[in-house]
Design brief:
252 residues, Cobalt-precorrin-4 Transmethylase, domain 1, Methyltransferase, Cobalt-precorrin-4 Transmethylase, Domain 2, 2 domains, five-stranded mixed β-sheet, 12 strands, uroporphyrinogen-III C-methyltransferase
């Protein structure tokens, strides 16, 4: 009977190898096959064995190396041929990482799956910028949404942002104008503070601040590029951002 390998869905965190879990680092170092996203940093990929086969399935907006169903099929094929596969994802596999879809297809094919959590982009950005996503004086609720989901204008975002709440938007750079328009149409104040965090927790991280009404101009003027998070809420107006930027410049 042919041995069936295991698929490991591994979170690579926001890019700094120091932010990997110990288990993630061990799996990367011993893996024979690594199927990785484009957001996985070169420093993390360099931890792989020289004998390891690295397969990139990088995705960019409207341009995918492989469609998701083919990625799922690739993982299953490698495992059914007896190889353990590390599916390496930026952030956490189950937060906008489509790890749930990959796990479902693997289980349907009779392939065992293990999930290794990673520091999500939001957690990494919060730590690097010292923005407390929840704060006793400013926010007791935090929500995560995808900014490029289908039917953005039809989504009900009312109540996700406002006084006492923090909204973190993934993949929202291209749709920043629609996001700002939608949130204001749903009742959010135009002067609600926002922060845009580009390349969170990396050496080239940038943080820019403004108000909700000026979000589209902010993204355009600063030439923000993905990966970037948009954080909306009173927590972004606290002094911690200035302190974090000072610390980042000192580190450089």
């Amino acid at each position: 009977m042919t041995h069936v390998g295991t698929i490991y869905l591994v979170g690579a965190g926001p890019g700094d190898p120091d932010l990997l879990t110990l288990r993630a680092a061990r799996l990367i170092e011993r893996a024979s096959v690594i199927v990785h996203d484009g957001l996985v940093s070169p420093e993390i990929l360099a931890m792989a064995s020289p004998e390891a086969r690295l397969i990139s399935v990088a995705k960019k907006r409207s341009k995918h190396t492989l469609p998701q169903d083919q990625i799922n099929a690739l993982l299953v094929k490698e495992a059914l041929e007896g190889r353990d596969v590390v599916r390496l994802k930026g952030g956490d596999p189950l937060i906008f990482g489509r790890g749930g879809e990959e796990a479902e297809d693997a289980k349907a094919a009779g392939v065992p799956v293990q999930i290794v959590p990673g520091i999500s982009a939001a957690n990494g950005a919060a730590a690097a910028t010292q923005i407390a996503l929840t704060h006793r004086d400013a926010a007791s609720i935090v929500s995560f949404v995808a900014g490029q989901c289908k039917g953005l204008s039809d989504q009900d975002w009312s109540g996700l942002a406002g006084k006492g709440r923090t909204l973190v938007i993934y993949m929202g750079v291209k749709t920043a104008p629609q996001i700002a328009e939608k949130l204001m149409a749903d009742g959010l104040a135009p002067d609600m503070p926002v922060a845009v965090i580009e390349n969170a927790a990396r050496t080239d991280m940038r943080v820019v601040r403004g108000m909700l009404a000026s979000l589209p101009d902010l993204v355009r003027r600063e030439r923000i590029k993905s990966p970037a998070l948009i954080v909306i809420g009173e927590v972004t107006a606290r002094d911690n951002i200035a302190l974090a930027n000072t610390a980042l410049e000192a580190a450089r």
